[in-house]
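Duplicate of #3305? Posting structure anyway:
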């Protein structure tokens, strides 16, 4: 069979530890035998980030802007221990943070559903995709302890020096606390556009909720910006695709999510997204089956697995042990990126290959072949725990049968 040819390069961001090992295995076993891979390779492994003073991360994000699609391996976000372990010049920032800042993107997390891994809410028969607005609110707050007898006010000074004041609270009879938070129309608008674009791409309804009945200016601004952008730029396209934008209150949306069958996108304010993405990931069952894509408001896509570099397994691997690490979310990062490249460059055989590789991956797990952690939670009767390489080779057998 002739290898599938690509047109525009795909931006490839290599990473760290166990996922870096799996990255190469996926390419060798499941991709390069079938595709003449055309990638612009950036090594985001911690050693190379340090050697380039993290310039490689910036370069990879700019290349993603230029070419439109990237696939990223999990990377170490250094802490003090990592600075020592890798003898780093600096405690480099999170690559995902740097890339997100350059692309102005929103992260969408979507679980892969397979037979045998039943969500804690069994009526969730379709995935729920969650999008978190990753700017502002309490994550960029200013807060103070306040002593009894104090008066706390909000003061805004405009560019001409005029002050607007509003009373927060007069503390009488008790000490207390105050907090100042902000957000930006520009950031909320980018978030809204990323969500509307993603919904159109996925052909799924978009849900959004705030507490605008209580927060009549702050949360209401989120509601209004979403409503305006929807009406002006997306309503016609949503109608043409048979999908809907649905706004409600945060407590109402929780009740609806729990009662739902899934199959929609849930846009969340920063804090709601922080909390609810962990809830959804746990409820759907396995971190090894959670995918993630960063979408910019201009429609640039960067695909990755939601999990990290699986450090504990890597240290075992370095000792020469066979490890059983789940490669599925990393495979789906590749298939997501290749399918998108196929769509943008009009290479239907590339998109079809991505579909078949996903099918083969799911079939492998549904045949009972899986990693140790998945086997612990799978309800299938006949399970076989395999090491990562065997897992990939089993997927290849099923892929070959589909091609
Ligand atoms: P992690 O790498 O996601 O691993 C946490 C644990 O979850 C693992 O030890 C393993 O459990 C299980 N696990 C995760 N993915 C798995 C998979 N594919 N197959 C099987 N089991 C899996 O999180 P972490 O240990 O907190 O972080 C490790 C490093 O990753 C850190 O340096 C962090 O900075 C980085 N990180 C990067 C990203 C990213 O690039 N997007 C995201 C998160 C973390 P058992 O040990 O019980 O088997
Ligand atoms: Mg969280």
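Output from current build:
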């Amino acid at each position: 069979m002739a290898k599938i040819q690509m047109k525009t390069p795909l931006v490839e961001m290599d990473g760290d530890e166990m996922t870096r090992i799996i990255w190469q295995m996926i390419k060798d076993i499941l991709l390069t035998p079938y595709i003449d891979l055309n990638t612009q390779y950036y090594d985001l492994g911690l050693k190379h980030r340090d050697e380039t003073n993290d310039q490689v991360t910036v370069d990879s994000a700019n290349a993603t802007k230029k070419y439109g699609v990237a696939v990223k391996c999990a990377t170490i976000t250094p802490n003090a221990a990592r600075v020592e372990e890798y003898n780093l010049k600096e405690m480099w920032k999170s690559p995902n943070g740097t890339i997100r800042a350059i692309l102005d993107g929103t992260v969408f997390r979507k679980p892969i559903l397979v037979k045998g891994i039943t969500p804690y809410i069994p009526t969730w028969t379709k995935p729920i995709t969650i999008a978190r607005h990753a700017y502002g609110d309490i994550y960029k707050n200013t807060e103070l302890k306040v002593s009894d007898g104090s008066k706390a006010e909000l003061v805004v000074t405009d560019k001409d020096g005029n002050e607007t004041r509003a009373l927060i609270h007069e503390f009488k009879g008790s000490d207390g606390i105050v907090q100042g938070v902000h957000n930006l129309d520009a950031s909320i608008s980018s978030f809204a556009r990323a969500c509307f674009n993603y919904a159109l791409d996925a052909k799924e309804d978009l849900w959004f909720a705030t507490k605008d009945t209580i927060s009549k200016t702050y949360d209401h601004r989120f509601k209004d910006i979403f409503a305006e952008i929807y009406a002006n730029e997306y309503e016609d396209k949503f109608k043409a695709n048979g999908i809907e934008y649905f706004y409600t209150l945060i407590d109402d949306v929780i009740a609806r999510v729990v009662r739902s069958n899934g199959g929609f996108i849930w846009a969340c304010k920063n804090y709601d997204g922080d909390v609810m993405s962990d809830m959804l990931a746990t409820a759907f069952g396995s971190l090894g089956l959670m995918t993630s894509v960063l979408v910019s408001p201009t429609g640039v896509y960067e695909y990755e697995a939601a999990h990290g570099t699986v450090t504990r397994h890597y240290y075992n691997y370095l000792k020469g042990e066979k490890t059983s690490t789940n490669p599925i979310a990393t495979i789906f990062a590749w298939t997501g990126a290749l399918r998108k490249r196929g769509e943008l460059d009009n290479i239907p055989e590339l998109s079809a290959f991505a579909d078949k590789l996903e099918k083969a991956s799911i079939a492998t797990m549904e045949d009972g072949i899986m990693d140790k952690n998945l086997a612990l939670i799978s309800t299938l009767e006949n399970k076989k725990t395999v090491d990562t390489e065997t897992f990939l080779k089993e997927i290849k057998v099923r892929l070959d049968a589909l091609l």
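Confirmed duplicate; merging threads. Residues 274, 278 surround magnesium ion (ligand 2) (CB under 6 Å). The domain at 1-112+286-403 is CATH 3.40.718.10 (Isopropylmalate Dehydrogenase).
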